[in-house]
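Limitations

Structures in this collection are predictions, not experimental determinations, and the ligand pose is part of the prediction. Treat each record accordingly. The example that follows, with pyridoxal-5'-phosphate as the small molecule, is included so readers can see exactly what is and is not provided: the inputs are given verbatim, and the output is the predicted complex.
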Amino acid sequence: MEHHDLRHHGDVEASPGLVDLAVNVRRAARPPWLDAAIRETLDDLASYPDATAATGAVAARHGRPAGEVLLTAGAAQAFVLIAQALRPARAVVVHPQFTEPEAALRAAGHAVDRVVLAAADGFRLGPDAVPPDADLVIIGNPTNPTSVLHPAADLAALARPGRVLVVDEAFADTVPGEPDSLAGRRDLPGLVVLRSLTKTWGLAGLRIGYLLAAPDLVTRLAAVQPLWPVSTPALAAAAACATPEAVAAERDIAVALGHDRDHLIATLRTVDGVTIHGRPRGSFVLFRLAGADKARVALRERGYAVRRGDTFPGLGADWLRVAVRDRATTDGFVDALRRVLEG
Ligand SMILES: Cc1ncc(COP(=O)(O)O)c(C=O)c1O
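Predicted complex:
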C-alpha cells in the first residue's frame, strides 16, 4: 500500500507570518457571549469539571436524551474512544477523508480497509461502495478534504444491525440548517455522530466536541475515556453554543461562509489548470492542479500556507486544499497562485 503520513495535519503547514489557508478554523472574532461564558469559569477552576449541565444542553440542542450524548476533548478524542472500545472484525474508512480516524484505529492494533471515492465521480458515495460485512464504517459529512456533502439518505442506508456507523460531522455546522446531518436520528442502528465546536467557533485550542449515539454505545465509549476528559471552560463553551440563539448565529455564519466560498470557487476557476471535483459545501475547497506540490512551496514564499494533498489516501501531489476566507484574502491568494504558475 502506498505510504501516507496519516498524522500530518494542516497546523504543521501554517507558520507564523503566513496567511493561513491550511487550517479550516474560522478566524473571525468570537462572539462576546461565548468568550464571557468561557471566562466566567476561571473563578471555578479549583473544582473538577462536571459535565452534567453541558451534556443536557447539547442533548436538548439535538432533541435527544442526555444519555445519548458524550462530551469529548474535540472530535479527535472520539476517534480514539472508538478505536479503543470496539473490536471490529472489518473496519472500513471511506477516503479521501480526515486521516486521524484511520490513524487511531491502526494505533489501537486494528486492520483497516479503505474505500476510496473517485474524483471522476465527484467523490460521491456509490450504493455498493462499502462492503456488506464491514462492522465498523467511518465517513465524514461534509467530508474533509473534499468538501463534498453526502445526502443524508445515502449515509442512513449504510446503517444496519451489527455495524457501527460513524459519521464525522465536524463540519456539519458549516452547512446552513444542516439538512444532511444525522445528529437527530435516533432510529438508525449503530449510528455514532461526531461533532466539533472547533471550526465555526474558532475554538481549536480549547478541545471541545461530542458524540451522539444510542445509550449502550455511549456507555461503551465513555468507559474508555480518561477521567475528567473535558475541562470546565470547554464545558461552558459547549453549553453556550447549544442554545437556540447560538444555533441561529451558527446558521448565519454558515450562510455568509457560503457566499465567501462561492467567491473562492469562482475566482479559482479563472486560474488555468485548476479543476474542482464535486460540489464543495464545507469551509474549504479542494482542487487539482498539475504541479501543486511545487506551487505549494512557491506560495509559502509569497506568504500563503495551503494544505498539501499527498497525505490523503485517494489524492496525491497534484491536489491542494484551501480554507474559505474573506474575499480580500481569497483575491490575494488567487493572485499569488496565478503569479506562481506564470513562473
Ligand atoms: C473532519 C475532521 N474531523 C475531526 C477533526 C477534529 O476536530 P476537533 O478539533 O474537534 O478534535 C478535524 C480537525 O481537523 C477534522 O478535519
